[in-house]
């Protein structure tokens, strides 16, 4: 049940934040491996990107990749949050009854790795679909998938089962860093807010506030890994299924840093917060409340 509750909470958040995921993906691919000022800027900021995609691709364009997004969230976060919930209930993140920063960080990272590996094929397809757009505002490599199942079958047919896990080398550090930052901060913040007695004991505002604190830490820690992940998943590949632009995580990280500077690794930071921030807050809040509700009636 812990796995199901984690997945349902993440899906609830995904439905509302998917348009921002589309915006984030496009902004991270814009000007890929080009120095500032040498490429066409289609998306000036989060709000301009939102307006441009809605105007050119239509409102449906803002919900591209929703189906694989929901499937990814259910399985990846179901495994990640479910694993952490079990680890937490067994007392492994505590030392002398208090949340241990080191233990919760390690446990959050482990839960993230398991979820990232399982969800990688769906994340690959989601990224391809979200980057697809009308030629006039296209950024990054454009795949011609007609939907999630068509994409999965086409990739498997051309590159085999391992082709579906292309980009997993970026997914593991991305999700493990994000998960470690998110879950350790959420657990520690929830405990701190309870200790300070800002809200009454058991109040839903405790989880909501802890989620807000966690969201800021997650975005700052995760964005460089998120940019690299998006680019590795979306890059064109040769007939053997090997990336044309990057050999792997470190190659993409170093090339982006060299060509675009530190700001390249934080491309779409605003979009990242508008997407990851609400997603973190909503999913952690729903997860906490669903678990409380379930344990109260079980």
From TrEMBL:
It is found in: Mitochondrion inner membrane. This is Solute carrier family 25 member 35. GO terms for cellular component: mitochondrial inner membrane. Solcar repeats lie at residues 1-90, 99-192, 202-293. It is a multi-pass membrane protein. Belongs to the mitochondrial carrier (TC 2.A.29) family. Pfam families: Mito_carr (PF00153). Keywords: Membrane, Mitochondrion, Mitochondrion inner membrane, Repeat, Transmembrane, Transmembrane helix, Transport. InterPro entries: MCP_dom_sf, MCP_transmembrane, Mito_Carrier_Antiporter. PROSITE patterns: SOLCAR. SUPFAM superfamilies: Mitochondrial carrier.
